[in-house]
Amino acid sequence: MSTSRPAALHDGCTMGDLILRAIRRGGERIAFALDDQAISYREFGEQLSRMVQALEARGLRHGDAIAVLSSNRPEAFLVSAAGYLMGLRATWMHPLASEDDHAYLLEDSGVQFLFVDPGMFAERGKALRARVPGLKRIFGLGAIDLGEDILSALEKFVPGPLLSKAHADDICVLIYTGGTTGRPKGVIHTHRVQVTMVVTELADWDWPQEVRFLAMTPITHAAGAMIVAVMSRCGSFVMSKGFEPQRFFDLVERHRITATFLVPTMVYVLLDHPGMAQADLSSLELVIYGASPMSPARLMEAMKRFGRVFMQLYGQSEAPNCVTALHKHEHDPEHHPERLASCGTPSGSSQVALLDDDGNAVPVGEVGEICVRGPLVMLGYWNKPEETEQAFRHGWLHTGDMARCDADGFIYIVDRSKDLIITGGFNVFPREVEDVLTRHPAVAAAAVIGVPDEKWGEAVKAVVVLKAGAAVAPEALIALVREHKGPVQAPKSVDFVDALPVTGLGKPDKKALRARYWGGQQRAVH
Question: How far is CA 436 from CA 199, 326, 341, 402, 423, in A?
Fold first, then answer.
């Protein structure tokens, strides 16, 4: 039997293909909503056709590099969707990043065309135009004196048939890492990776029958990586320009939101907000959380207030959104309370293993680094071959997250390898200490770091945020940890603060926190 087959026989679809299918299925259903703006799938398809024609008329071609600097709004995703169809390479830009970071991302990724939301970023756009000589043109998502208003230009075109011109192995997006250990690295994702992510989200997550999704985190990151999955379910994607607790409650009630994505710090803020008691959250069927660990004690509190609606995702820029999941039914405080500290079991087609420094699997119950193989893994880091080789050592993607696995296959992240504290020769994983601290009814949030110490090398320090009106002595918290974890893990000191520093993604920023205590000293990265 002949084995000769066409080269394209096993090619997969692209992100553009998924969007086109969703548009055809969605029809007159609402695809996107923001404030008083509502766009049906049919209307979005017409706008997408016009946008593709407008960009092609302005010389954008397959392989060109684009970026969008905008708050959450449908038009920002419209540009990205056009890029998917045209085979453009998009760089995702966090709206809360600094000017220096924005300039670095544009220069490092070679962006040629920048789309700017004039309502919030006109001044930033001017600064970037002056700093980044590689920018060919800046377009406005509205009237702007930096360049042409691309939205007004759409009116000159008549909607026509839509076609994806991208290939599964084309670079789809560059996602820059948070940069907490140095300059951000551009993570290369092909259409194949992004489609794998969407298909895994659809297959493995606990979606409601009717999806009305609320995005209050930037759509340049995890929430935005859920847009195409929501569209594939013919759902409505409701956007908000930023997070505010009362606004969250109001939007859930107004749109009868059934699903949302929150980072743990947002959950804590909602729980501690006075509007929580009167909020109507009865429509919520799924609260996806991730990006950083959730305190089991606060998660249990959230389940009492929101209901049994929580599902955890675990992933990272290098393997987005879908490495593991802890499903709603696995949040079981009655029979398996320990699993509230787990990130779940592997998702989709990825292989997941816990490996030691030599690339060998560790025994059940012992700590190893979470490593991933499969079609969800990035192509590599943009223009960083050495870092790519290091990340892919032993034939696996090394995540930098340290974890243990139980006999049932549930994975428990103990911490980032770089956050490990070595005190007096003993290893302390901060997350385990934080989980004990947040059991105390007075504690809203806690971060544990190592600080310089002449005797121990590093001493364990707890930085704690108290709930409104609550009080607790430092000695009581130290004793609580000593009781549950032993004297090595017990903090040597406790500082109380009004709020913990967070990154633009809402993650606790331990780099910033450590800087307060280390000053000019160099901390070893473990």
Answer: 37, 21, 11, 18, 19
